[in-house]
Each structure stands twice: as C-alpha cells, then as structure tokens.
Design brief:
Helix content: 40-55%
Strand content: 5-15%
Number of helices: 12
Shape: elongated
Number of strands: 7
Low-confidence stretches: 1-6
Strand order of the largest sheet: 4-5-6-3-7
Mean pLDDT: 86
C-alpha cells in the first residue's frame, strides 16, 4: 500500500507559494523551530507594554460635560422653535422668599436642594432616581411661582438653561409645529436640564395635549432628567383632570408638595392698605 504520510524529517525543506514566483524555500523544519524559539526569547526580553487603564472621569469632569450637553439641548430646542424660548419665570430668588410657617420653610429648603443638587443627582444617581421631579400643588398665593422661578434662576446661574413656561404656551408650540419640528422639540425638551410647567390642570386637556405632554415626560424620564409641575389643584384632583395615563406618570415621576398655608399676598393687597402707606 502506498504510504501517504508526510515526510517530517528535520532536514526537509519547506516551501510556500509567493505571488509572482512559483515557490520560495523558507527553510528546513529545524530552521523553522530555531526561528520560533528565537522569536519567543525575543518576546520575553521585550514584552509588549500594557495598554494604560482607562481613567474614570472625575465628578467635576462629568458634571461639566453634563452642563455642556444641557446647553446644547437648549440651543437646539430654540433652533427647532426658530425663535427665542418663551419663559414666564419671574425675577425671584430663594433669598427673597419669606416663609409664613414651618411647612413653607420646609418646602423652601426642598426646592433649594432640588435646584442646587440637580447636576449632582444626574451624574451620580441612576436614572430611576435622577428623573424624579416635584409637583407644587395647592392654593394660590402660597409662593409656588416664586419658588419655581427661584429654581429656574438658580439653574440658569449655573449655566444650564432650564425651560419654564405656562402649560398653554407649551401646548401652543405643538399646535403650530410641522411633523419634523415637533419631533425635534420633543427630543430636545427631553434633554434640557429641567422642564417647568406652570398652570397645569387649569382646564381639562384635549387628547392631543395629553399625548404631547406624555411624550415629553416619557422622553425626559428615559434620559433621567426631572421636571416640575405647578398647579392650584390638589394632587388627586390634578390626576383626575389629566386622565389615567398621565396620572400614572405623576405617580412615577413626581413628589407632590402640598402648599396649603395662607396667602402671603393678602396682607399686601390694596384692600388691606391705606393709600398713605403706598403713595
């Protein structure tokens, strides 16, 4: 029987095909083993340097990057509107809010902590926590707009432009939008640092309005960014007005803060002042 076993003699020459030639001799088996041993020895003497470990960005680096991304989102939102971003924020700060009772003082502290810690929460906490916002609920004259405006200007001073507008303005933006600009607005509203909507629940929402509000809140929740709702209704009444789908989002995404203390503007109203005190 013919022996088909390959000759593995140490002195046998090995060849390989080379482009442009027929065959090229690369040496005997002994030569190849010798060369392999030399290469192994050389590799031990000159080990490959280890790739440097990827450095974890510091908190400040991550915070600065997040501030930059918030600014980009605000600019792109303005581009989608093709005009300046409207706002109803009033010139207020936390320092000029005068709480009339212990509960009002507690809410002031919470709102200040919300604003001053927003970037830190977004950077350090999981999205399920960082996306949690607040719903300022309750009677008129308790300073809800004052507190929300203070949050707005605190964030603005930090260089991360929030968006603060009345609900009626918010919905009007979508009514006049084309399909493409509507998609852009929802995307960028989902990326700005904080969305503050005033006068929510002043009237029942149309299906169109409810759908747009839900889309924006969902986009923000996916990104882990908080929102603020301001309403003169109690939280249960607000959920009734908004409908079941949005009521579910309220439960998931907002801490209700009841502002039920007395109207601080009453003592400053014209009915309680003499003209000589003013003029």
């Amino acid at each position: 029987m013919k022996n088909n076993m390959t000759n593995t003699s140490p002195n046998r020459s090995f060849t390989r095909a080379v482009a442009g030639t027929t065959f090229c001799t690369i040496g005997t088996l002994t030569d190849i083993i010798e060369l392999a041993e030399k290469m192994k020895a050389l590799a031990k003497e000159n080990p490959q340097p280890k790739a440097p470990e990827k450095r974890q960005p510091s908190f400040e680096e991550q915070a600065n990057e997040r501030r930059y991304l918030f600014s980009v989102a605000f600019t792109r939102f303005a581009d989608a509107l093709q005009t300046d971003v409207p706002t109803c924020a009033e010139e207020h700060s936390f320092n000029d809010y005068a709480p009339t009772c212990t509960e009002a003082a507690r809410v002031l502290r919470l709102c200040r902590r919300f604003a001053e810690g927003l970037v830190s929460r977004v950077v350090t906490q999981p999205k399920e926590r960082s996306r949690l916002g607040i719903a300022l609920c309750g009677r008129t004259g308790t300073g809800k707009t004052h507190l929300a405006s203070s949050i707005y200007f605190t964030l603005k001073a930090e260089g991360i432009e929030p968006v603060y507008m009345r609900a009626s303005t918010f919905f009007a933006l979508f009514r006049g939008a084309t399909g493409v600009s509507e998609v852009k607005m929802i995307r960028q509203l989902g990326r700005v640092s904080c969305l503050i909507l005033d006068e929510i629940g002043r009237s029942a929402l149309t299906p169109f309005e409810a759908n747009k509000l839900q889309e924006v809140l969902d986009a923000r929740a996916r990104n882990g960014y908080p929102s603020i709702l301001i309403t003169n209704l109690q939280i249960d009444k607000l959920k009734d007005v908004l409908g079941s789908a949005l009521a579910s989002r309220i439960d998931q995404l907002f801490f209700p803060i009841a502002c039920m203390w007395s109207d601080y503007r009453v003592k400053e109203s014209a009915a309680n002042l003499k003209p000589e005190e003013v003029f």
